[in-house]
UniProtKB/TrEMBL annotation:
Top-level enzyme category: transferase
GO terms under cellular component: Golgi apparatus
GO molecular function terms attached to this record: glycosyltransferase activity
Enzyme Commission number, as recorded: 2.4.1.-
Record flagged with keyword Glycoprotein: yes
Name of protein: Hexosyltransferase
Family from the record: Belongs to the glycosyltransferase 8 family.
Keywords, alphabetical: Glycoprotein, Glycosyltransferase, Membrane, Signal, Signal-anchor, Transferase, Transmembrane, Transmembrane helix
Pathway: Glycan metabolism; pectin biosynthesis
Coiled coil regions in record: none
The keyword Membrane is annotated on this UniProt entry: yes
Protein's organism: Nicotiana tabacum
């Protein structure tokens, strides 16, 4: 057969095959939107002597990569808990993301005890002033201030956890600490220079400078806190925190670090000291460069990538820090395949 006839025959066969191929809507089982973003986690079951319910609060932001960190954090809590089925998660999120978040949580953690709470950004948006890093200015970063208002009054104690940490110990040990009548418990770091957390306008102001009178204030990180919600409600601490945010938003500029300074102003010096192992913080470096850091000396129950550098971003960029390898086993994110069946 002449070569030109081979070409004609081949073209005709291709046209016939294309004509016989079923429509794409019939053969395609999933679209990109249907594919879960995260792999399903294993089911974790209770050990012995599980009678107490442990309440944990976290924020979930479906529109940002921080969701990946939150999912890793939940997995780490469940994996190391003696009583994972007795752990109840209270998730704060904006209402427009509820549908997607509910699908994400139930597909990733089918056995998880949880509830979504609507955090309205307008509650706090007018009180937020710009800080050293944009992520610190997001309304959800301030949601921890409103836990006592959003959660049921039947919840009297809560552990608040940030979205950039993993727990590597039984969370019940943190839950069971004695607050000794204090409203808040957290690891304190009294060696830090406390004056650096506020501007000269604060320290040279005749009234503001007396804020810590009769107190010995120490820095504490608000990414890990045990809170007595009943005492918080009874003493109106949400309004006290809002007061300092209004001062900051007015003609004064008394701090630069987002939601942390109001907590220091209200609670520093009256915090129940928790062992440092429950917040090995600063693994994300500082708020400007996010350089690699080493662990603090001593035992570790919780690893916290506070600072600019987040492990999921550094791992994806193929430029991880050594300690990011400790976060990676808890990452359930489903990476897109390089190949497609369609």
């Amino acid at each position: 057969m002449p070569p030109e006839n081979y070409l004609i025959t081949t073209v005709l066969l291709l046209l016939i095959l294309l004509h016989l191929r079923p429509p794409a809507t019939v053969t395609a089982s999933f679209t990109a939107a249907d594919t879960p973003k995260f792999r399903e986690a294993p089911a974790f079951r209770n050990g012995k002597n599980c009678s107490t319910t442990i309440h944990i609060a976290m924020t979930l932001d479906y529109s940002s990569p921080y969701l990946r960190g939150s999912i890793a954090g939940v997995l780490s809590v469940l994996q190391h808990a003696t009583c994972p089925e007795n752990t109840f998660f209270h998730f704060l999120a904006v209402h427009r993301h509820f549908n997607n978040l509910n699908k994400t949580i139930t597909s990733t953690f089918p056995y998880l005890n949880f509830k979504l709470y609507n955090f309205n950004p307008t509650l706090v948006r007018h009180l937020i002033s710009s800080s050293v890093r944009r992520a610190l200015d997001q309304p959800l970063n301030y949601a921890r201030i409103y836990l006592a208002d959003l959660l049921p009054t039947t919840v009297n104690r809560i552990i608040y956890l940030d979205s950039d940490l993993i727990v590597v110990d039984d969370i019940a040990k943190l839950w069971n600490i004695d607050l000794n009548g204090r409203v808040l418990g957290a690891p304190e770091y009294c060696h830090a220079n406390f004056t650096h957390y506020f501007t000269n306008k604060f320290w040279f102001h005749p009234t503001f400078s007396n804020t810590f009178k009769n107190r010995t204030p120490c820095y504490f990180n608000t990414g890990v806190m045990v809170i007595d919600l009943q005492k918080w409600r009874n003493n109106g601490y949400t309004r006290k925190l809002e007061h300092w945010m209004r001062v900051q938003k007015s003609r004064y500029r008394i701090y630069e670090l987002g939601s942390l300074p109001p907590f220091l102003l209200v609670f520093a010096g009256n915090v129940k000291q928790v062992e440092h192992k429950w917040n090995q913080h600063g693994l994300g470096g500082d708020n400007l460069e996010g350089q690699c850091r080493d662990l603090h000396p001593g035992p570790v129950s919780l690893l916290h990538w506070s600072g600019k550098g987040k492990p999921w971003l550094r791992l994806d960029s193929k430029k991880p820090c050594p300690l990011d390898s400790l976060w990676a086993p808890y990452d359930l994110f489903r990476h897109e395949s390089l190949f497609s069946d369609i």
